[in-house]
Amino acid sequence: MAKKLTKQSENYSKWYNELVISADLAENSAVRGSMVIKPYGFSIWDNMKIELDRMFKATGHVNAYFPLFIPKSFFSKEASHVDGFAKECAVVTHYRLKNDPNGKGVIVDETAKLEEELIVRPTSETIIWSTYKNWIQSYRDLPLLINQWANVVRWEMRTRLFLRTAEFLWQEGHTAHATKNEALEETIQMLNIYQKFAQDFLAIPVLTGVKTESERFAGADDTYCIEALMQDGKALQAGTSHFLGQNFAKAFDVQFQSKEGKREYVWASSWGVSTRLVGALIMAHSDDKGLVLPPKLAPDQVVIVPIYRKEEQLNQISEKVATIIKELQAKGIRVKYDNSDHQKPGWKFAEYELKGVPIRLAIGPRDLENNTIELARRDTFEKKTYPQENLATEIENLLEEIQQNIYDKALKFREDNTHYIDDYQKFKKIIETTGGFIYAHWDGTAETEEKIKSETKATIRFIPMEDGEQGKCIYSGKPSAKRVCFAKSY
Amino acid sequence: MAKKLTKQSENYSKWYNELVISADLAENSAVRGSMVIKPYGFSIWDNMKIELDRMFKATGHVNAYFPLFIPKSFFSKEASHVDGFAKECAVVTHYRLKNDPNGKGVIVDETAKLEEELIVRPTSETIIWSTYKNWIQSYRDLPLLINQWANVVRWEMRTRLFLRTAEFLWQEGHTAHATKNEALEETIQMLNIYQKFAQDFLAIPVLTGVKTESERFAGADDTYCIEALMQDGKALQAGTSHFLGQNFAKAFDVQFQSKEGKREYVWASSWGVSTRLVGALIMAHSDDKGLVLPPKLAPDQVVIVPIYRKEEQLNQISEKVATIIKELQAKGIRVKYDNSDHQKPGWKFAEYELKGVPIRLAIGPRDLENNTIELARRDTFEKKTYPQENLATEIENLLEEIQQNIYDKALKFREDNTHYIDDYQKFKKIIETTGGFIYAHWDGTAETEEKIKSETKATIRFIPMEDGEQGKCIYSGKPSAKRVCFAKSY
Fold first, then answer.
1. What does the pLDDT read at residue A2?
2. Which of A334, A391, B65, B439 has its C-alpha lying 20 to 30 A from B148's C-alpha?
3. From the list A42, A62, A72, which residue is nearest B65 (CB)?
């Protein structure tokens, strides 16, 4: 850790960018908008993948893999889909390079032009539904419950590491069903899985609801989302689950023979979360000292730093540490021993605070004498000396406590920053100052939604799924069926 | 299983294509040369990934992720690299589509032309070494032991499912070292890991050696490979490990300060295996009835089929099966119970033979009375009735036996089809008829290599790493330092 981070309170955005770089999570690449995910950042994503994949499989889903490239014509088949994605896609037009006759490296070989251009997938509904057409004949072929882990490309103009990049990693589930109800149930089931994952693993409380038409996925009948609140008062959409109706089945003519012998169009859902979750994780919990990682996703849950002057002391400490490591690993705890000799303990302490390791153990000659060890919590900075006896059990419990504490803190922050507002001036003031979620009445028109957005930069994050009290639109005064949730967002 | 497969002996290539499709492993997509990996095929690849990833991590490697796109100019930096890859790459030239003014779908927006074209990665040495330049300053930053799981694209003209596709999935390791020796050791270590993986998991014995210059990876000083023999007598290169020398370090100016304070170029290795391994797995073991999967990689290791006439019998059987499943799962055995009611047992037996499930259990009313179960092995077609008692232990042992038997069979096949030949007419005859590996003397010239290839289609698969007896080139009669291994190949 070469230098201190900018403080959150000074410049939140700068703090975030510096943290991602200095904690070795990711960096910008030589390719505009594409990031390099470094080993430490990738390990967090990998831990997320393992848990999500387990949850998908436990609910009957299987993985498959569909092509990276999509023929251009596929995009035109679903009218709203092409409008949503055509503006931001990478287009492959040629399949060969050749030596520049002027000797300046390589150039595109114009004789190797594709008859039909290929689009690098921004999302895979079209290629998948063109495939499902051949897989689905009868109700016996349904449901299809398929997920893929893949990279996708959306040509974003303003990119930020993890939050918005031209290429990102994600999973996309694509399911096919015989009935509308079943497809709807699947859509909601996956939304609930995302919510549970966010709460139990990311330690982020999320709200769920349905998007307004203007924020809906291009090609969906309804888009459901999980929304999290970041520490700067801005919301972050952390995952979406789409009810696609029969839109893609109709676009690609996917029909099946029902039990009753009728030909019907198939019903669909799709749902995804991405490496954006790493950004959410950082912004929900971390502080001016660096990352605060929930133990369940931390690459290293415990780091051990030896305190010594002489080589001989290090040897004695290392011997003791070997036993401790064995005990921790026996409980499935991920532990790292940093006995590198070119950095002082103080430097290492700061480094692992920056990296967000939940528990730091320090052990020196006096600890050896007393059979003790010093333990520091990353989430509270609390330091305490523990006996070495039963240390593994102690740490196991503590990791759970830390996971819970991080969640509770994030929940309290959200509760403190959730407002029920009926006055537009107050609404604007909150949005301009502290931010947070604002539940307010809305008349249900795209016009009002747009006006509030252009005046305040706040958008409707979601419409709650539950019934609510009636009221008057905060902007137009017209009748409103229930409050909706506004916030500025990433 | 609608129809019988073409027999291997009639048309091996047709047999392979039919098997991949009818066993639900993969299919061709709407995009030329790109396949869809179906859930059953993907599950095999996923099982491979889990084991390989474990082996990589056990030897100190970590995962990361680098961009899909590579700026065109990067390719020109390593001279032989560009020659090897420029001819078969997908080129992104634009970043937007727009509505066709004539109303015919969407067209490329010519105003959204990239200043520099982007290449969809065929392999990632260039983008990774351009990144390593910023990561490596001192010997303390070395070694870097990084792997990535990714998709890559090579614009192949003749494609075959799994064996050669325009897009494929793989892992590519890219390591950086302070010394030549260390980089060489890493190259060989990874070759040995591939060999061990092939033998222990794929149940395929593989030979290892070094490629001739003409078969070397574009940019490598040396390419090491594992080579497997398929049942039609053709060899398949199943993995490669490249010693890259300082070529990419020089191309991207990656230098480090040594312990002695000198500036030196970094040494490198790269190594990869791909979804091609699924093709190898199929061709090494399967038969006219379908897949034969080694238990360690089979998505389902055991399938249970109930034999019944009345609903009541099915209920009784299912109750018993629930206990058996619990016992098997307690041992970590992957088991499937097929109680679907729209197919007869005979159909199911054929289906799971086609799918290569290592062990099939059948249980009927008489088995309930006698506390027995019928067990059929996929590898030998042996059928035997077992007591239900201790069944799980029995099956656990049997799965190991099957894994070993499949390996032994493949090893015997290779031994039976390995020849030491000194006569060119005999050489030609073997290549034309049974195929197999032929160890023969070669004068070491590219000219002879090329002539043998054009006359027989056989290539030098590898030069053995061990010393060998001297002799005379089978083609030119000139002196040869040792025998090299020839075969026709995929």
1. 53
2. A334
3. A42
Least CB-CB distance to A90: which of B43, B62, B92? B92
**ipTM, 2 decimals?**
0.97
B23, B126: one domain: yes
Q: Do B93 and A89 touch (CB under 8 A)?
A: no
B466 and B382, same structural domain?
no
Note the pLDDT tens digit of each residue in A68-80: 999 999 988 887 7
Check whether residue A160 and residue A273 sit in a common domain: yes
- Average pLDDT, whole number, for chain A? 96
Chain A nearest-CA distance from B400, in A, is 26
Q: Which residue of A has its CA nearest to B155?
A: A95
The end-to-end CA distance of chain A, in Å, is: 28
- B276-285 and B391-416 helices, crossing angle to 10°: 90
**pLDDT, tens digit, 9 for 90 and up, residues B118-137:** 999 999 999 999 999 999 99
Q: Which region among B78-82, B172-176, B318-322, B422-426 has the lowest average model confidence (pLDDT)?
A: B78-82
Instruction: Give the helix/strand (H/E) hosting B486.
Output: strand B483-487
pTM of the predicted model, to two decimals?
0.97
Sign of CA dihedral A188, A194, A195, A200: positive
Q: Which residues of A touch B69 (CB under 8 A)?
A: 31, 34, 90, 153, 167
Record: contact B151-A155, CB cut-off 8 A: no
pLDDT tens profile A365-394: 999 999 999 999 999 999 999 999 999 999
Instruction: Convert the pLDDT of each residue in B346-384 to its tens digit.
Output: 999 999 999 999 999 999 999 999 999 999 999 999 999
The answer for residues whose C-beta is within 8 angstroms of residue B52's C-beta and 6 or more apart is B171, B197, B273
The CATH number for A446's domain is 3.30.110.30
Q: How many domains does chain A have?
A: 3
- Can you tell me the distance from the alpha carbon of B87 to that of B105, in angstroms, rounded to the nearest whole number? 31
CA distance B274 to B272: 7
CA angle at B226 for the pair B225 and B232, rounded to the nearest 5°: 125
Nearest CB to B69: which of A31, A66, A131?
A: A31
pLDDT digits (tens, 9 = 90+) for B149-163: 999 999 988 999 999
Enumerate the residues of chain B whose CB falls inside 8 A of the CB of residue A156.
none
Report chain A residues whose CB lies below 8 A from the CB of B70: 31
Select from A285, A319, A354 the last residue of a domain: A285
Helix (H) or strand (E) holding A403: helix A391-416
Task: Please state the separation of Cα A128 from the chain's center in Å.
Answer: 23
Of B70, B47, B50, B66, give the one whose Cα is nearest residue B58.
B50
Q: CB distance B106–A46 less than 8 Å?
A: no
Task: Quote the CA–CA distance of B442 and B447 in Å, as a whole number.
Answer: 11
Contact B278, B45 (CB under 8 A): yes
- Cβ A36–B64 below 8 Å, yes or no? yes
Model confidence pLDDT, tens digit, residues B71-120:
999 988 887 778 888 778 999 999 999 988 887 789 999 999 999 999 99
Q: Measure the CA–CA gap between B73 and A105, rounded to whole angstroms.
A: 7
Substitution target in B24, B43, B68 with the highest count of A β-carbons within 10 Å is: B68
Find the CB nearest A93 among B29, B63, B108.
B108
* Geometric angle at alpha carbon A386, from A385 and A387, rounded to 5°: 130
What value, to the nearest 5°, has the Cα angle with vertex B163 and ends B158 and B165?
Answer: 50
Range of the domain at A357: 302-401
Confidence of residue B445 (pLDDT cuts 50, 70, 90): very high
pLDDT of B2 strictly over 70: no
Distance CA B338, CA B302 (A): 11
